[in-house]
Amino acid sequence: MKAAMLYEYDPAVNINLKLEEVKPPEITAPDEVIVRVGAAGLCRTDLHIIEGIWKPTMDPEGHLLPYIMGHENAGWVEDVGSGVKSVKPGDAVICHPFRSCGVCLNCRHGEDMHCEAGSFPGLGMNGGFAEYFVTSERSLIKLKKGIVPLEVAPLADAGITAYRVAKKAARLLRPGGYCVLLGIGGLGHISLQSLHAISGCRIIAIDKEPAAQKLAKELGADVVLDGGPNVIEEVREITGGGAHVVIDFVGELGLENLCWKMVRKGGQLFVVGYGGKIEMPTIQLVIEEINIGGSLVGNYTELVELMELNADGKVKMHYTEYNLADINTAIDDFKHRRFTGRGVIVP
Ligand SMILES: [Zn+2]
Ligand SMILES: [Zn+2]
């Protein structure tokens, strides 16, 4: 099969993935499923993997490469292990990115992402930048009639990450409350739509790219800001003292230290993008009673809920399609933000 292989790390993300003919995956356990990839979303995490910031956790010995990235996958079931009952070859599916075990206590609580014995195809093991990849039956959600893998693949990760944090935010937001979304990219534009669907809050979208600002307006953001030097004052002015919730989809490049300054007293900052370091005086944390927390991907049932919103037309993925042969162009375009929404790789 055709696959895009990562051979080396590069902090500047200038290296190319190598397109190669490799042996297709085989079923090695009764619960495994081989998926013919219909589309795979290109994620900032893929750039971070190339940069090497995951190397200490994922590849401490340095023996992992080469392998195939790609963790936002949808496609069709190609083959199933002997124990698989809920899907059959030919079924169109979206793949929850995490292969959770199903039997640990965290799994039984429903939090797949906290599974003690899970694995993540595309992160440290072969994923979907190829014609086929292998996952487990537990990860699959069958697509409803008329839903095409290409149009939903990034919902598998970008989508649920954006939806999970929107759901957490919605619990804290009353109608009239303000939510700031910093970064209207692959995740931000899904959170915006999700918040509209599940909350009565007002949304302030911040992005320096005109195309992203335009998308935010089209998707119904109440206020769109360009993130200029006065952005903190602007937000504090519009919201009358700070937003009730701020969601940071960037988490690096210095923006991580703008976000907590936009939160009102008693408000909440959720960090989703990563790579930077938050620095704030502890006294500020105390006197403002600001809450800061992270949000990680999402669980299986959250992906089910998101697919329902998608089927009802309430949350749509905006994407640009690239052939697998052009994956290095896609990565370069992503680095330079030449597309809005998500880049999607089609083998
Ligand atoms: Zn991702
Ligand atoms: Zn588990």
From TrEMBL:
PROSITE patterns reported in the protein's UniProt record: ADH_ZINC
E.C. no: 1.1.1.1
SMART domains tied to this protein: PKS_ER (SM00829)
Pfam families listed in its UniProt record: ADH_N (PF08240), ADH_zinc_N (PF00107)
SUPFAM superfamilies reported for this sequence: GroES-like, NAD(P)-binding Rossmann-fold domains
Enoyl reductase (ER) domain ranges (all copies): 12-345
Record keywords, A-Z: Metal-binding, Oxidoreductase, Zinc
Swiss-Prot/TrEMBL cofactor(s): Zn(2+)
PANTHER family registered for this protein in UniProt: ALCOHOL DEHYDROGENASE 1-RELATED (PTHR42940), VACUOLAR PROTEIN SORTING-ASSOCIATED PROTEIN 11 (PTHR42940:SF8)
Similarity field: Belongs to the zinc-containing alcohol dehydrogenase family.
Protein name, entry field: alcohol dehydrogenase
Biological source species: Jiella pelagia
